Amino acid sequence: MSVCKNLKGYARHHERVADFFSLLAVALFFGTLLLGATYYNPITNWIKQDILLHAPTLILLLLVDIFLIFLFLNVGSARFTSEEEGCFQTFRGRRAGSGSIGMMFNSWLHHIEHVGKKHR
User: What DSSP line would sit under 60-71, residue for residue?
Assistant: First the structure.
């Protein structure tokens, strides 16, 4: 059993944990925005000191922050998924291998219509 299924199963049975992860994702998002706005001048001065080292470091930190936000949102939304649904899914157009652009668009549209129904 994968880590993803363990987390989803735990979040399904303990709804408060899922709510906490959703709240943590929102707090991390707005906290990042607040820190960026509050410390804008010190951050830009720090980057200007050594742009070749500090700019990639800042970009890496932002990517880790975005990854954590999506991870927390994924764990938080696990309570809305069904038991048999897998962890990683894609829309049918990629798996079907149809060469027609119209069929791929139709499959994508069908997928998008049903994604909203799962999260209501």
Answer: HHHHHHHHHHHH
What length does the chain have? 120
H/E segment holding residue 110 = helix 101-118
> Rounded to whole angstroms, how far apart are CA atoms 22 and 72?
6
Six-digit token string for 119: 């999260």
Nearest alpha-carbon partner for 75 in 20, 27, 8, 30: 8
User: Per residue in 93-117, pLDDT tens?
Assistant: 455 555 565 666 676 667 666 665 6
Judged by DSSP in three states, 90 sits in coil
Closest to 120 (Cα-Cα) out of 77, 89, 69: 77
Orientation angle between helical segments 51-76 and 3-13, nearest 10 degrees: 50
